[in-house]
Amino acid sequence: MNDNEVAVDSVVITGAQQPETAPAAWKYLKARVDQVRLAGATLVKFFRNPTHELTHDQTVVLERQLVQQLARRAVYWAGILGCASILVVSKGRATPELADLHPLAVWAAALWSCLLMGGYLLRRSMRLGEDETRGKIRLLHTQWCFWATVVALLWTLCALLLVQPPPFVPGSHQPFSLNAVTFTFLTLIGQVLTVVLLAPSRIATMSALTIGYLLPFVIWISALLPTPQGRVWVEGQIVFDLVIAWSVGADQRRIYARGVRAEAERSRADSFVQNISHDLRQPLSALALKLYTLRLKARTPSEIEDIETLQGHAASIEMMASGTLDLSRLQAGTWKISVRPVALHLVLESIARDFRAEAKASGVQFEVRAAPFSVSTDDTALQRILRNLVGNALKYANPVRTGRPGLVTLECEDLGDRIKVTVADNGPGIPKQQIADVFKEWVQLSNPERDASKGLGLGLYIVKNLANLLGHKLEVESIFGSGSRFSIFLPSRGPIPAELLELRGATPVAESPDLTGLTVVVVEDAAGPREEICDVLMDWGCYVVAGETAEDVIAEIKAEGVPAGPHLVLADYRLRDERTGVEAIDLIRSELGHPTLPAAIWTAETDATKIQELDRLGFPVFAKPPDLERLQKLLLKHLPTAGTGHVAEGLSQASTGSEVL
After folding, report:
1. Are 202 and 249 in contact (CB under 8 A)?
2. In the beta sheet, which residues pair with residue 128?
C-alpha cells in the first residue's frame, strides 16, 4: 500500500513537473520552426514572379514599361557593339582563307544593319499606347528577344573570322594581336554590360549571354585550360554568372512592378480625393447658400446672430474639408500648377477685400500696400498661400489674444528680379526653437485642446508645400512676444504699365443687388444645390429656369417661354450619365439658336486639368459653394437693357417657322 502510494506520489510529482519543462521546450521549438518558415517565405517571395500581385491592367502596364525600357537599352547595347566593330575592323586580322572577301567589313555591315532594325523596333515600342493589348506587347517583346539573339550570334561569329593566335613560345615577345582568342576574352569581360542593359527582359538577357558568353567559352577558352578540374571550376562559375543575370532581371521586373503598384495607388488616391471633394462640397454648397438666403430674410437681432453662428460653423466645416483635401492632393502629388504672368496688385486687393470685414470684426487694423507688378506664379496657389498667411496673422493679432491693438500688414517690395510679399503681424510671435514645427502638418502651438474653430494646423504646412511646388522661397522672421513676418519671393516680370492697369475704386456690389429682368438658366442634377442657388438668384430679382438636364430646361423654355433672354447659363460640370456642363451649354446654345449665349460653370471638382480645360474654353468657373460677390459681378455684366431679349423672341418666331435671331 505504501509502495502504491509512493508510486502514485511519483506520478503526481512527475505530472507536476511536466507543465514547467515540456511547454518551455515546445515554445522554443515552435519559435525556431516559425523562424525557419519566415525565412522560407522571404526566400520564396524573393524569387517569386512579382506580377502575381498585379491586376490584369497593371500587368499590361508593367509589360509595356518593360518593353519600352528594353527597347532603349537594347539600342544602347547594339550601339556599343557597333562602335566596337570599328575597332575590330581596323585592328583585327581575318583568316587568310577569307581575306579576299573582306569578311570583317561584311560582318560590321551586317551588325550595323541589325542596329538599324533595332531603331525600327525602338520606334514601334515608343509608340505603344495605353490601350494596347497584351498580345501585341508580348509579340513586340518576342521580336526584341529574337533581335537580341541575332545580334549576339553575329557578334560571336566574328571569332570565326579572326585568325587563330600563334602558339606561345616561352621567352619570346609576342605583340598584341586582335585574334580569335583575344576577341573572345574581351567579349567575356564586356558581357557585364549585357546583364545591365538587357535586364528588363530575362529572356533576352539569357539568350544573349548563352550565345555571347557560354558558347564562345566552350569553343575557344575551354580548350586553353590546362586541366579538366580547371574547366569544371570555370564552367561552374559561368553557370553561377548566368544565375546572377537571371536574378538581376527578376529584380528589374520587381522594381518596375513596385512602381506600377505605386502609380495605381496614387491614381486611386487621386480619384478618391476628387470624389470625396465633389460629394462633400455638394451639401456644403447647399448649406452655405441656404444660410445666405436666411440671413437676407432675417429681421430680429437674435435671428441674425443665430444664422451668423451657423454660417461660422459651416465655414469651419468647409475649412476642414478643404484643408484635408488639399493635404491629400499635396501628399498624393496631384496638385497641378500652371505658372503664368499674374497681376500681383489684383491678387492683394482681392485678399484685402475678402479679409477686411473679418479684420474689422476682430478689432485688428489691416493694412495693404499693393504695387502694380507682374509676377510669374500660379494664381490659385499664390492666393491660397497668402490667404492662409493673412488668416493666421489676423487670428494671432486679435486684441483678445494679445491684450494690445492688433495690426496686420500685407505689402510687397521690389527687389529687382524678385518681388518680396510679406504678411506681418504684432501677435505673440513664435519661439525660435519652434519655428520649424509650425510648418508640420496638424501642428498648432496654441491649440492643445484641438478646438476646430481655431483651425486644423494645416495652413502653414500647405503654405510650405505650395511654395516648394512653385519654387518660391519662403522666409520666416519672428520675435517671441512681438510678432511674426512671413515672406514669399516671387519672380518679377517688371511693373505693369499704367495704361494696362485695371480701373480701381469700382462701386462695391450690394449684398442683395437688383437683377430684375435677368433670366438665368440653371442646370444642376443635385436637388439641394439647385434649389438653393435658385432661391439666391430669385432673391436678387432674376427669373430662373432650372432643371436636372439641358433637355429639361430646353423643354421648359420652349413650352412656357421666358419673359426675356435667357441671358446666362449656369451649369454644374459633372452631370448624370457621365455628361458635363460644357455639353449641356453647347446643347442649350444649339437648341435656342444662340451660339454666343453667355455661360458659366460651377463645380465641386478639384482636378486642376479639368479646371484648366474650362479656362481654355473661356468659361468662368465657380467653386462650390460659389463666391457670391463674384457671381453678382458676372450677372451684372449681362443685366439686359431696354430692347434685349432676342432669344425669347426668336423662340416665339421659331414656333411659327420664322428664323431664329
Report:
1. yes
2. none
Q: What would the pLDDT profile of 521-535 be if each residue is shown by its tens digit?
A: 999 988 888 888 888
DSSP letters spanning 125-155: HHT--TT--HHHHHHHHHHHHHHHHHHHHHH
Q: Do 479 and 427 share a structural domain?
A: yes
Residue that has been written with the C-alpha cell 509579340 in this structure: 139
CATH of the domain at 363: 3.30.565.10
The answer to whether 496 and 372 are in contact (CB under 8 A) is yes
**pLDDT at residue 133, as a whole number:** 87
CATH number at residue 612: 3.40.50.2300
In a domain, 329, yes or no: no
Measure the CA–CA gap between 396 and 17, rounded to whole angstroms. Answer: 71
547 with 626, same domain?
yes
Tell whether 469 and 526 lie within a shared domain. no
Q: Is position 23 within any domain?
A: yes
pLDDT tens for each residue of 85-99: 888 888 887 777 776
User: Quick one: CA torsion of 366, 371, 376, 381, rounded to 10 degrees?
Assistant: 10
Q: Does the pLDDT of residue 2 top 80, yes or no?
A: no
| Joined grid coordinates for residue 325 | 483635401
Give the residue among 379, 342, 381 at the shortest CA–CA distance from 463: 381
Residues 12-48: pLDDT tens digits? 433 444 444 557 778 778 888 888 888 777 766 666 6
Residue 533, amino acid? I
Least confident range of 150-164, 176-190, 442-456, 618-632: 442-456
pTM of the model: 0.50
Q: For all residues of the chain together, what is the average pLDDT? A: 77
Name the DSSP letter for residue 505: S
Radius of gyration of the chain (CA): 38
- 285 in a domain, yes or no? no
The verdict on 68 and 181 lying in the same domain is yes
C-alpha cell at 478: 519672428
Tell me the C-alpha distance between 189 and 196, whole Å.
Answer: 13
User: Could you give the CA distance from residue 65 to residue 130 in angstroms, rounded to a whole number?
Assistant: 10
Check whether residue 560 and residue 609 sit in a common domain. yes
Provide the domain count of the chain: 4
pLDDT band at residue 209 using 50, 70 and 90 as cut-offs: confident
Q: Looking at the structure, do residues 103 and 227 belong to the same domain, yes or no?
A: yes
Question: In this predicted structure, what is the pLDDT of residue 122?
Answer: 92
Residue 452 lies inside a defined structural domain of this protein? yes
Domain that holds residue 15: 2-46
Stated length of the chain: 661
